[in-house]
Structure formats: C-alpha cells, structure tokens
Predict the structure.
Amino acid sequence: MKKNTIFIIITVIVLIALAIAVIYFAKQNKQKEQEMTEMVEQMNFEKEQIEKDYSDLTLDYDGYTTNIKNDSLVQLLQDQKNKVQQLLDELRVTKSTNARRIAELRKELATVRSVMIQYVNQIDSLNSLNKVLKTENVEVKKKYQAATETVQQLSKEKQSLNEVVNRASILEITNFSMVPLNSKNRKTTWFSQTANLQFNYTISKNITATPGEKIIYLRITRPDDDVLTKNPDNVFRYENKDITYSASKKIEYTGEAIHDALYWKVGEILPKGNYRADFFADGNRIGSFSFVFEK
C-alpha cells in the first residue's frame, strides 16, 4: 500500500512538471509569434512609408517640370522622374520581409532626393538669373554647365561607392591549411602513404555578402602548373572563360564565419614541390594559398 502511494505521488509530481513545461513552452512560442507578427507589421509600415516618399517625390518632379522652359533641364528632370518611377514599381513588388532590398531602395531614395535638390537649386538659380540678367545668356549657360557637371560628378561618386560596396561583399578565405591523410584518413607525415589531401579553411564573416546557397570551388595547381582534376568537364565560369577545378562543395552561407574542409583523393603520382590552392565563389577568387610536399 505504501509503495502504491509513493508511486501515485511521484506520478502526480511528474504530470504537474510536464504540465508546467507545456504551459511555459506554449507561452514562449506565443510570444515569439507575437514578436514575429510585430516585426512583419513594422516592415510593412516601413515599406508603405518608403512607397509614400517615392510617390511624393514623383509629384514633386511633376510640379517642377511644368514651370521650366529649359528643354535640357526638363529632360534631366524627366529622366530622374522615370528612374524614381522604376524604383517605385520595384518597391511595390518587393516583399516587405526582404529587408536587404528594402534598405537598398531606401538608400536609392536618399540618392535621387539629393539629385532632385541639386536640380531644384539649379532651377532657382536659373530663374533668378533670368529675372536679373536676361541679356547675359552666356553666364547663364556657364552656370548650367557647372550644375550639370556637379550632377555627373555625383553620379561618378555613387558609382565608385557601389564598386566599394561590391568589393566589400566578396567572400574571403582565411585559416587555410593542408593535411595529408593516409588510407585510414589519419594524418601522415610520409609522402608515400598519402591517400587523401584535406584542405581546411574558414569563410570569414561578411554581413554585406548576399546570403544563400553558394558553391565553393577548389583549384589545386601542381609545381608544373598543371591543375589536378578528376574530369576535364569539371569547369566553372571565371573572368568570362571556363576554367578547370579540382573539387567543389555547396554551402549555405548566412553571413557568419564557416569552418569547413574540401578533400582531394590522391589517385596519381604527386611530385614534390610547391603547390597552390585557389578558392572561388560567386565568380570571384576568394583565397589563394601555397603548400609544399616535402617528404
């Protein structure tokens, strides 16, 4: 009887603990769902605000073009208005959860607004000059030319900035090492016992790189500059031509650092000397290293 009582008490305690755990995790899950819902609502709100800003900017362009008689400036404003409309159309079809593209479109908005300010300043300047110096057309043309050159300079600076951003988004390989393995996949220091080559590497953290599935290509070059490959059809595109690779691997990149390895199964006689290991991803060389067979 006493044993049954103890067993019942223990069972009740376990059930109570399980009930508490279920309630706790249910509350946690509900809280996470609520936070996610609020985040999505915030993203939708930000997207709507940006859409409104783009729409307002388009109306501003319409207002200025109706008051300008300078055909060249009207054309420049029209070109900018078309660009704003294209960005607005893209924004409308972009999902609000695509935070990266939304942020890029927000930056584009700042850029086109800055250009519009430049144009507005040009308009005010031209209007003032036309009222005060109607007979000095040469001077007006010089000022307009200077303003146009300023806009072109801004465009060049923006292009340079884009190039810097693109370079910053390229992945980078660090912490490279090559480990010779024997037939039991154990590290060996004997050249004659090498059955596999293990290439260890780290893909550095890069929050500016585009996340998603990527293919890492390894290109192993012998001392005589021949590339090790198991199949001559193993090629990938690099600098507008197909080049041979030795091994490849698909990874899921999130922007955080990844420690990984690629392997080469030795099926040929490898001469002693200096070798080179080149890594590629997204059409870019992301790391180049040398290693030596000495034994």
